Predict the 3D structure of the following.
Amino acid sequence: MFKTMMRRAVALVAAAGLAMAAQAAEPIKIGSFLSVTGPASFLGDPELKTLEMYIEKINEDGGVLGRPLELVHYDDVGNASSARNFASRLIRSDRVDIIVGGSTTGATMAVAPLVQQAKIPFISLAGAVVITDPVKPWVFKTPQSDRMAAERILGDMKARGITRIGLISGTGGFGSSGRAQTLEVARDMGIEVLADVTYSGSDTDMTAQLTNIRNTEGVQAVLNFGFGQGPAIVTRNYAQLGIDLPFYQSHGVASDSFLALAGEAAEGLRLPASPLLVPDSLPDDDPQKAIVQKYKSEYEARWNSKVSTFGGYAYDGLMLAVKAIEAAGSTDPEAVREALENIRGYVGVTGEFNMSPDDHNGLDADSFRILEVQDGGWKLIN
């Protein structure tokens, strides 16, 4: 009798152990919706490749909390309505533990109310300040904000003695937000915006808008805030018109693909970007140097294509998610959300992240470096 009871006890313990092991081995689901195809594919393609690559690497190293990561991904083709539908599927059907995605501001803002209602952590890869300001408890993001970009650009202009500018911007979510932030920052910094023109995503020639700026008396420099093919068209038209003024772009075009689209017309322009585009130019004591060099070499070796700033946003988003899950010791949504909110001193590809209950981005304007196009490549200015 005693032996029979012991065998049953051993069997129950073994069964419980197997159940716990099975539960521990259940994958941690990372949900994602990205613009892998369509007009914003230059954002989503490197973002998806980055997530796929590093989830594989993390799993090869044993996963997180002893569990493998599983990527559940949908291509929203740059459409905000599709992004919302896919996010709903990730939350309700796929039952993901955290979402890392949202290539564009429009897609991100369409999804934000859903994650707020579902109470699931969401790390966006889009740039507009409205994503995290005002703070939304369940929404975080990795790129610097458009306001930071405006501060960095206008600060560089003032250092060059420029106080009167012309502004041209896209009418999409990113361009509109960037324009609004630029106007506010310019006012705060004592810079006059003498000309303020826009273009739509379907425009194929911005000569008229640039001629308006060129004919505005007193303009000392020009800033274009936008992303996609529009800024490349603006850059080519700028050169065609022979405008002999300092020219700036936003971080929305910080990639080698922009240089390929703009060609020789990009020579001399400046923009704010992460140091990922010029890792070897960083001083050896820069805490980001080893990280950006490693990411760049691993990405380019794996995909045989140039690294981009946008892939770097995905790298940071994934690593922040992993750090938060590890700190929480589980995938409990509230515990992960709280852990994200308390990440300090994480040095990533984009910059050093210091999150707080009042700051769900965790970066400052100094995380941007000013780059200039010289001899068809990027040159670190400051």
User: Anything to note?
Assistant: The longest helix spans residues 2-24.
